[in-house]
Amino acid sequence: MLIEKEKINKKIKNLYEDSLSDIIIFSSTAVCIVFVAYFLYAGTVTVIPHILYIPIILFAYRYPKRGILFSFIIAVLYLILFDILISADFGLYIDAIGRTVVFIAVGIIVSYISGKLHSQKERYMSLFNSLDEPIFLVEKNPDNSLGKITDCNQTCCDILGYTKIELLSIELSSIITKSGDAELSNEKKSPLFFKGSKSSPLEVLITAKSGMKVLFDLNFHKSPSGKTEEVIVAAKNPYLRHEAEKKITESRFRLEESLKIAGLGYWDKNTDEDFQTWSDETFRIFKIPPNSEMKIKSEDFKELIHPEFREKVFLGYDKSISERSEYSRKFKIITGDSEERWVHSRCRHYTDKRGVVIRSLGTIQDITDDVIAEKKASEQAKFFETLLETIPLPVFHKDKDGKYLGCNQAFALLTGKSKDYIIGRTVFDLFDEKTAVFLSEKDNPMLNKSGVQITEAEIPDSRDNIRNMIISKAEISGSDGEDRIVIGVMQDITLLKRTKKNLRKSLEEKNVLLQEVHHRVKNNLAAITGILEIEKSRIKDEDALRFLDEAENRIQSMVIVHESLYHSDNVGEIDAQVHFKNLFESVLTSYSPPSDVKLLLDTSGCKIDINSAIPCSLVVNEILTNSMKYAFSGRSEGEIKINLKCHDKYYHLSVSDDGIGIPEDISPEKSKTLGIKVIYNIVSLQLMGEISLDRKNGTKWEITWPRKETDSDTVL
């Protein structure tokens, strides 16, 4: 009846503990969700959502098989709350999704670990109950005697004939009766269990339920729970001690193999002995063959240490003994094949009851590769530091708090401070308040958003001279996204801006001068035209008058070019659309053809450079003149088309009319008329281009010539 009651009470207790755990888990879940929803509603989206790790971890630990599903539900619920309560841009949504991924990842990791722990606990309990040796967990009475049994494995029940419930209701000391043939003394009944990690084995007789006395070796251990009022009692068959020794040997072998895999050798030395005991791995590190005793004399070991470190190693070891401190040192050795290697040795010292060091147990590891890598890293860091100093531009880098982590000498000269002073300071310690506020405001966006920032600023130098600076900065984050730093380079453009200003002023003066030159050339050409007009009034010969008209027309085309250049914003080029229209109107006025002639003009927004403007204008003038004089004879109307295309390396000009066309018996290349000769000579000799003639449906001239850069183009 008592046993059944204890079973019922135990079930009730377990049910209560399970219900309490569930209440805690779901209460924390509700509180955390409400807390996150409140702060999301308040606009806080960064730190607060991390409290959702609490219910995820609790639930995944409690229910590892359903922990992943629960974390997924929490993640979806968080996204729903985020979408409802936050009006965010794309970047914040990406961050929110990232957090949900972390939630699920945490659920997976904790579920996995918890599952392993539960599985491990089950395995340990199964192992505990399947052990061949009886194991008791016993309370310790105030007088240090063995008290009530609080737990035991199945082997205890099988050997002693009690049920587990029965054993949990009795005191272990009550069934221990004898140690060999003698009764247990008070000291034996009340052993001091806690002087060390465990006591020496105690041979006793334990009375079984049937009254039979069974001989055991009792070993006393501290409880792994850390409770001083409990002790673990392991009962072993004394005749199987050699099996235990065998297991110890196997455990030692496993330890040595594990150390060997990790590249760790160990050594053991008693202070009163002049030799050390080494493991196989230690001999391998020193590249000397092990002996049968696995020992090496201290003098022989001393010879294996590089002479540069020999004295330091032994002095450091002696000092650690005198101070009772842990020994740790890196030093160089000379191996058995005369190779120099780096090793790292650690050891701890063990003392007797008087506190005197009697033994040292240590490890040794070959760290040659690490030392070489560290040396290379140091050399690389030194190289980059030297490279940084060779840069004539001020260079700096600062942390997320705006504190300078380092700079080169050029930056130190700019501020007038030493590099040691600058490190750990902010812009407010180096510059005036106005400059510092400006630079600080420019730093803040860099710490919140990656990328490159280029800023122009006025920075006072060490002599309080204002320098115009271009500051290029970039943000670099650590692998965890937290260790953000800003790297910046400053370029002094004060002289460049001053030179640019002077050049702009000089260019403006040059443009004014060139416009004045074009204006005067235009006036001179107009004066020549006036002289020709006066001469025409005195000449009666028709041929002479015709030649003077053509000459005057050619001069007028040049006047139009200079007029266009004078009014152009860029004296190195003219607007083809306006220029050809003015030229057409000038020729139309000069010749007054018998028909109504219309102009179809398309220049595609082209600008003609100054090197091509006058020759091109003369060519178009000759073509228009020929069309006005001959193309529309006997007609009431006519049409002239001018098309100009500008390509990267050449111009293409097309001038056509729908008139009667040039007769087939006239060869333009061999023509003796001045107008056609002017066209071909200017195209081939001045424009360095090509010309073709199409006589279908009137006359069509196709001209192509290369584009040329002028001095004005280059300056502009």
From TrEMBL:
Domain PAC: 327-379
Tagged with keyword ATP-binding: yes
Residue span, Histidine kinase domain: 516-709
Gene Ontology process terms (BP): phosphorelay signal transduction system; regulation of DNA-templated transcription
Keywords, in A-Z order: ATP-binding, Coiled coil, Kinase, Membrane, Nucleotide-binding, Phosphoprotein, Transferase, Transmembrane, Transmembrane helix, Two-component regulatory system
Entry coiled-coil feature ranges: 496-524
Domain PAS as annotated: residue spans: 120-169, 380-450
One Pfam family in the UniProt entry: PAS
InterPro entries xrefs: HATPase_C_sf (IPR036890), HATPase_dom (IPR003594), His_kinase_dom (IPR005467), PAS (IPR000014), PAS-assoc_C (IPR000700), PAS-like_dom_sf (IPR035965), PAS_fold (IPR013767), PAS_fold_3 (IPR013655)
Segments traversing the membrane: 20-41, 47-63, 68-86, 92-113
Molecular functions per Gene Ontology: ATP binding; kinase activity
Protein name (database record): PAS domain S-box protein
